[in-house]
Amino acid sequence: MKLVVFGANSPTGRLVTAMAMSAGHTVTAITRRPADFPFCDHRVQTAAADVMDADAVDWVTGGHEAVVSVIGVPPSVRPVTVCSQATYNIVKAMIGHGMRRLLCVASAGLDAADLSRAGLMRQRAIRPVVLASGRAVQRDVRRMEDIVRESGLDWTLLRPGRLITGRDVSDYRITALPASRPLTSRTDIAHALVHEVAHGEHLGETVYVS
Ligand SMILES: NC(=O)c1ccc[n+]([C@@H]2O[C@H](COP(=O)([O-])OP(=O)(O)OC[C@H]3O[C@@H](n4cnc5c(N)ncnc54)[C@H](OP(=O)(O)O)[C@@H]3O)[C@@H](O)[C@H]2O)c1
Is residue 112 packed enough to be buried (19+ CB in 10 Å), middle (13-18) or exposed (0-12)? Predict the structure, then answer.
């Protein structure tokens, strides 16, 4: 398939790119820092775009069969709109180009039900400013999820737990409910994305990867 990957230069995005190439897909890798992108291969082309720029997103999205988004932002005490605005721009571009398949990485911990009692206690113990900065991103990711669900596209939302580094793909689980202490290796979430884009086992679903 011809994939466009937003956030391709992130640690997870690089793994997605490598695994997608190994699986026989071609990738258009979107980053604001193309000079730092480490892949040089006929199956990958790099395009510079800021996802907040709707015209740029439209330009790089056309001509592909599926979109994978691993856009993310660091915690901030100020309002955050990157994930939601990026996703709005991506959905609009996909509809304009007649594309259907969209996979987005969200996050476990967006719903109160995702947090175990211990998790809630830990959250309350964290300094308020740290908590507030996390919440601004969470609100943005929640808005992103709503945009995806209301898009009318063939979407899948994947919610990883806290991301860790893992060298090999593990026997990770994809579940409808969160794990009690969600941890996810970037290798596993990348594998789940590349598998899902090819097989479409979770169309119209929000799933946890842990
Ligand atoms: N870290 C965690 O524990 C955790 C937990 C749950 C979910 N997640 C999610 O997992 C995903 C992958 O996380 P990660 O740590 O590997 O990556 P990351 O460090 O969050 O990087 C995300 C990518 O987003 C891109 N991006 C941000 N703003 C952009 C903009 N305005 N225009 C274009 N690109 C923009 C950046 O691209 P360039 O700088 O290359 O342009 C960057 O490569 C993210 O969606 C994150 O939210 C993370």
Answer: exposed
User: How many domains is the chain partitioned into structurally?
Assistant: 1
Q: What is the mean pLDDT of residues 92-114?
A: 90
pLDDT of res. 76: 85
pLDDT of residue 181: 77
Ligand 1 close to Cβ of residue 164 (< 6 A): no
**Residue nearest (by alpha carbon) to ligand 1 atom 36:** 7
pLDDT tens figures, 109-148 = 877 656 555 565 666 665 555 556 678 999 999 999 999 9
> pLDDT tens for residues 158-167?
999 999 999 9
User: Residue 37: phi, psi to the nearest 5?
Assistant: -75, 125
- What is the extent of the structural domain holding 59? 2-209
Residue 88 in tokens: 């709005």
CATH number at residue 17: 3.40.50.720
18 lines ligand 1 (CB under 6 A): no
Q: Tell me if 9 CB under 6 Å of ligand 1.
A: yes
186 touches ligand 1 (CB under 6 Å): yes
Q: What is the pTM of this model?
A: 0.93
Residue 44 has pLDDT above 70, yes or no: yes
CA distances from 32 to 9, 59, 166, 194, 203 (A): 9, 14, 26, 22, 30
168: Cβ contacts below 8 Å, ≥ 6 apart: 187
Inter-residue contact 28 to 47 (CB < 8 Å): yes
